[in-house]
Amino acid sequence: MGKLLDRQALRLATSSSEAGILDGRLVAAEVRRQVQLVVSRLRGLGHSVRLSVVRVGDDPASAIYVRHKQRDCAAVGIASEEVHLPDDATFERVLDTLASLNDRDDVDGVLLQLPLPAHIDPQRAISSIAAAKDVDGFHPDNLGQLMAWASAVEPATPRGVMTLLRAYDVELSGLDAVVIGRSMIVGRPMAQMLTRANATVTVCHRHTTGLEHYVRRAGLVVAATGVSGLVPGDWIREGAVVVDVGISRGQDGKLRGDVDFADARSRARLITPVPGGVGPMTRASLLENTVVAAARRRGISLRHDAHV
Ligand code: NAD
């Protein structure tokens, strides 16, 4: 995988007393630029790329997330469509919808927007998406490939975190990393990817006793819980790298991460802001997964493309 960004382009720490920012917006823009090149190359070979997003019910946040995904697709030349099913759609109807998208030759990526209404079992529904079109990387075949360290499509958030760390030349080999959170979407695949990159990984979760102990000794902290202020800044080891995946909204309406940013910044070497850190990387990684799925389905190698 090529080097993503010129070091000069990165806004690194300007003073030794404050961490540099891991700028997700900047790196995501570069990922999108490279995805766009791949889309053009595929188009040159006679293939357009299309993502289908299935949304069930009327969760307002989901509607916004799907709009963002469609806007992101449009910006890089990927066609997209939303299939919206009512809140009371039966499980069979959801399966039928996914099956018809699996069968459509013009559809490269199929994504089921989460969360689903309570009567729809997410794991069973996700398992019915063709693994080759599962651009979220949540299908058991793709998660299994991840365990085998052989995956092409990886869950977008941890993939985005890895891209961000690579862009800033963070050396992961031999590093003590702590991942806080063990969801299928973030924590567990994140731990796999960091292990693959030769970090020594501890996974903490809501039943962990003595979280502070694990955070204090970590050279890399990835926090993914959604519990605002879970990690006070003074837990951060001097010179550590901090990636804050968590998002919650404070009473003032502002978005917050899991880590106390201001205090952590005075101790860390590099840190992600919230917003503007992991969020843009997640969105850009979905686009990467979509072009990778499109190329693989058509037997086209992307090995020579700079990043994707
Ligand atoms: P989840 O609810 O599925 O998992 C949360 C995890 O946090 C669980 O494993 C739980 O054990 C752990 N946890 C909860 N309280 C804890 C505590 N007090 N101490 C230690 N661990 C604790 O959530 P998720 O889908 O993994 O998302 C996690 C957070 O990341 C949420 O805030 C979500 O909004 C955010 N998120 C952000 C992005 C992004 O692009 N920035 C993408 C996905 C998720």
Structure commentary:
The chain has 308 residues and is of the alpha/beta class. Among the domains are: 47-130, Rossmann fold; 156-279, Rossmann fold (3-Layer(aba) Sandwich). The chain has 10 helices and 11 strands. The strands form 3 sheets. It has a 6-stranded parallel beta sheet with strand order 1-11-8-7-5-6. A 3-stranded parallel beta sheet has the order 3-2-4, sandwiched between helices. Strands 9-10 form a two-stranded antiparallel ribbon. Strand 9 (248-249) and strand 10 form a beta hairpin. Helix 2 crosses helix 10, helix 6 packs across helix 7 and helix 6 (156-167) packs across helix 10. The longest helix is centred in the first third of the chain and has 21 residues, at 24-44. The mean pLDDT is 94. The structure holds nicotinamide-adenine-dinucleotide (NAD).
Helix and strand sequence: EHEHEHEHHHEHEHEEEEHEH
| CATH fold-level label of the domain at 156-279 | Rossmann fold
Low-confidence runs of at least 5 consecutive residues:
none
End-to-end distance: 8 Å
Major beta sheet, strand line-up: 1-11-8-7-5-6
List the ions, cofactors and other small molecules found in this model: nicotinamide-adenine-dinucleotide
Helix/strand-derived category reads: alpha/beta
- Report the principal-axis shape: globular
Q: Largest sheet, described in full?
A: 6 strands, parallel
